[in-house]
Amino acid sequence: MQENQVHRKVFMYLNSLPSAEDSDFVNLFSGDNKPNEINLVINAAHQIFSDTYLGSRIVWKFEKDSLVLKMRTKEKRRILSSYLQHIHNVTDEIQQKTKQIRLHINAEKEPERNGRWISVPFTHPATIDTAVLDSDLKNKMKSDLESFLKSEQYYHRLGRVWKRSYLLYGPSGTGKSSFVAGMAKFLCYDIYDVDLSKVANDSDLKLLLLQTTRRSMIVVEDLDRYLIDKSTTVNLSGILNFMDGIISSCGEERVMVFTVSNKEQIDPTVLRPGRIDVHVQFPLCDFPAFKTLANSHLGIKEHKLFPQVEEIFQTGASLSPAEIGEIMIFNRGSPTRALKTVISALKSNNDTVIASKTVSGTKNEEPLRLTHSVSVGGALGVPSGLIGHGGPVGLPPPRLMHSGSARTVEESRETRLFQRERIPTIKEFKKFYGLLKTKNSKKEFIDFDGSEKDNSRHDIML
């Protein structure tokens, strides 16, 4: 079920030989990154290519789907092993120079000869540095990824498969997918985006995993949606085996990334250490994140309206980074107008939340601000810990406050209230960007041992 890596490398090596330019038949391909660039690739049909290694003449011949290597019998013992290692070294060097990250998606039906994966060049511009996250958290993520890349012998000494798994969780629009792109570019790994809706059953999911390659990132987005939907063809057992079952050991140097909107809705067995090594929270926008967005989207680091924006954030109002970013993009020609529109949207969101609380009888409940956190542990020998900050222990669970363009949704455990209102101050913006957001609840951070932690400051517990 897997691609023959020796065949792939030999084919790449033969294309690098000077004799390839003299081939009678070649295929023409446009470049992945440069459409005006034309690449010549040898046509494998019944052609012969010669090579020289350590003074010996070597001949390669294409026959159907196979490559035939011919050399003198008396020289085979002397040069065969070192020649194949030479091909391996040359192709690795070529790959490093011409590495192009590719995005693989699983097809519903198996295409002829190409397996279940269809790939395209991955040119997403996002990086880890462009993510709207705390700078310390981004540095910790980079450090964790770099440690993983250097830990092959360490993992093997522990008797563990050389792979690392991450959970990115938070409301829609907080930048999880863009962060996945940044991780892939940082690692220079291909992405295999698994669409569970196109998977026939648990066995089909295993076959997809078998057809992935080393140095790849396997991504499952919106995992919570699939786990909640009982009608899907892949059950919980299939997901668990996919994450860390025997089948997951058939290939190493992999990173697995799962994204969810609400971590609390996921079965704890999915999140246990070993299946998920690092938890990264993507919260709604706060004032420091707002300043980052203003700097990147509007080119301003300070503005006379910043104190007013900070004051509104302190009342508990918030929007997702995607919503605030879209407002700034729409009004990028006038930073002042963009900030005023953000202020209007935040006030509208805050008024709606207060009104909803009044109706539901929770007017005096103080919302907590959500902050960045990452829980690191397990795979590199570091006990599970917690990095982050938040409100003091004992306060009620923080509430996620989402803003929609014309509708807001208030959900509580006892009742569900839907309100509709018009906001003239951002009417023009709402024509371009409107989302229906749902509030949910968030519990205090709990370490893997089940004890509550004081999250009032950044710390790491090892």
TrEMBL record:
Gene3D superfamilies: P-loop containing nucleotide triphosphate hydrolases
Provenance organism: Lactuca saligna
GO molecular function: ATP binding; ATP hydrolysis activity
Residues covered by the AAA+ ATPase At3g28540-like C-terminal domain: 285-351
Organism lineage string: Eukaryota, Viridiplantae, Streptophyta, Embryophyta, Tracheophyta
Residues in ATPase AAA-type core domain copies: 166-284
Domain of life: Eukaryota
Name used for this protein in its record: AAA+ ATPase domain-containing protein
